[in-house]
């Protein structure tokens, strides 16, 4: 039997933020088994974590349909398990991943992810996305952002009211669509993220998307310290610090379930 946990990430209270499943293994199961477990959990991501050294771990992330190269909330959730279950004695964990080595540090305020800053690319055809997303007259800017597309909207009301055509979004040659808008309240910007192509209709809170949003908004607002909110049904908040070619994502996590996987995973 193998232990498995569910953790709500990027929140300090249960039933909000983004839930991720975390399984700590002595050896990674076959890829098809990892995928089957992720499909069974049916959360936006399931993380598999293998210990390499006292503070060094290998991490892999699976949506219900595919393995992904980077996932913020499941990394935060994994670190929360390693710290609270005393599976490491260090205050900083290093994760080996498909996106390189990722550090997570624990302090009195919560957890800090040290992730690569994913820079925005060229501008895309605005009218094409207005038609695709049925947002005529409501888009200010569209840019390629690594493996996603960022769409800046004119107002918060449009962001909240948006209803995606998932089949159309699936046809785009990108992981997903990030809708975002500048906000005049306590947050510098808010966003929503849709990635049906990788099995995620709307992600509750997306750390990897904020690796791109941090670069986009730090340039637009001329700020390196940003506060963000992801306006999904569950909602989640992040504090971002842009530092050279990296972005620090600060957040909390709440462990809500612990159990055992009864089927052999090896």
Summarize the model shown.
With 266 residues, the chain is an alpha+beta fold. 21% of the residues lie in helices and 45% in strands. The protein has an 18-stranded mixed beta sheet that branches.
Helix percent band: 10-25%
CATH topology of the largest domain: Diaminopimelate Epimerase, Chain A, domain 1
Tally of structural domains: 2
Low-confidence stretches: none
Shape-level CATH architecture of the largest domain: Roll
User: What structural class do helix, strand and pairing data support?
Assistant: alpha+beta
Give the radius of gyration.
Answer: 18 Å
What is the tally of beta strands? Answer: 18
Mean model confidence by pLDDT? 96
The CATH C-level class name of the largest domain: Alpha Beta
- The DSSP helix count reads 6
The description of the largest β-sheet is: 18 strands, mixed
- CATH H-level superfamily of the largest domain: Diaminopimelate Epimerase, Chain A, domain 1
Shape type: globular
Distance between the termini: 10 Å
How much of the sequence is in beta strands?
Answer: 35-45%
Helix-strand sequence: EEHEEEHEEEEHEEHHEEEHEEEE
Overview of this structure, please?
- There is one protein chain.
- The protein has 266 residues and is of the alpha+beta class.
- The chain is 21% helix and 45% strand.
- It is built from six helices and 18 strands.
- It has an 18-stranded mixed sheet that branches.
- A hairpin with a 2-residue loop joins strand 16 and strand 17.
- The N and C termini lie close together (10 Å).
- The mean pLDDT is 96.
């Amino acid at each position: 039997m193998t232990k498995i946990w569910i953790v709500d990430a990027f929140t300090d209270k249960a039933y909000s933020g983004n839930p991720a499943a975390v399984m700590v293994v002595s050896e990674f199961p076959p890829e098809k088994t990892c995928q089957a477990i992720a499909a069974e959990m049916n959360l936006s991501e399931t993380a598999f974590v293998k210990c390499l050294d006292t503070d060094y771990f290998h991490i892999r992330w699976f949506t219900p349909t595919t393995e992904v190269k980077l996932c913020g909330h499941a990394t935060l959730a994994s670190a929360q398990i390693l710290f609270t279950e005393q599976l490491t004695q260090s205050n900083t964990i290093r994760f080996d991943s498909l996106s390189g080595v990722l550090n997570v540090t624990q302090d009195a305020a919560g957890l800090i992810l040290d992730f690569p800053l994913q820079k925005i690319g060229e501008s895309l055809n605005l009218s094409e996305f207005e038609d695709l997303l049925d947002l005529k007259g409501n888009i200010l800017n569209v840019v390629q952002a690594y493996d996603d597309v960022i769409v800046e909207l004119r107002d918060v009301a449009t962001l909240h009211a948006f209803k995606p055509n998932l089949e159309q979004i699936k046809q785009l040659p990108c992981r997903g669509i990030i809708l975002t808008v500048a906000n005049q309240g306590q947050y510098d910007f808010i966003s929503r993220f849709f990635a049906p192509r990788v099995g995620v209709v709307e992600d509750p809170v997306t750390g990897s998307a904020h690796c791109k949003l941090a670069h986009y908004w730090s340039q637009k607002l001329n700020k390196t310290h940003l506060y963000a909110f992801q306006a999904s049904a569950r909602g989640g908040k992040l504090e971002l610090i842009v530092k050279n070619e990296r972005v620090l994502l600060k957040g909390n996590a709440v462990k809500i379930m612990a159990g055992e996987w009864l089927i052999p995973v090896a």
